[in-house]
Input
Amino acid sequence: MSDTEVAFVTGAAQGIGLATAERLAQDGFRVVAMDRNAQRLQHEAARLSGLGLDVVAATVDVCDRASVVAALDAQARVDVMVCAAGIYNDARFLDLTEDAFRRMLDVNVIGTFIPAQEAARRMSEGGRIVTISSRGALGGTRFAHYVSSKAAVIGLTRAMAMELRDRRIAVNSVAPGFTDTPMTRSAPPEMFAAWEQLEPGGKAATPDLIANAIAFFAAPSTRFITVQTLFVDGGKSLGGLSI
Output
């Protein structure tokens, strides 16, 4: 078996997931980039490979256990799992439907649970799982379903860490603040601009800033750290308006 550690990253076709895949590959991991958007994923994996980085693509739906298992079993080892796949959409609480709420929970919570569980089953001592929650877990307006899903991810992270600590598997979460990604850019431009002005620095974070924090938890040198949620939001969680 190769000594090179293998890191899996879900949601790796764009945004935070893509930035994380690139950063971990730069850090010396063999990275399996996972996403359900096969065309975009293949394009980005080829781009990163062209830069000399060890990145392979695996078309995966994080809510489909069979596709997750196939991607994991295609590699000789599982050292790191980064659960970065997620969705967001804007809706007032009184307008939310059960279908919209369930879809958010399916992707953001079940889509974290399945990859994390399957990775943990294959990890040896020293494995690391990193979930992506959100500053939004603290609350906010116009996205109660998203808030609920990300609060659940933090709770899931703590529960996994408690159960897996005897196996010396570290489980931590990174909670980004408002970040400039295709997901947030799906909002109307005037809404994005208004959100950005609420940030302490007057602008959104870039995905690579969030990837830096994820890489910290993914590193072998930090495997003694577990059950932490790290807010990466420029100080927004200290107080202020939501989003």
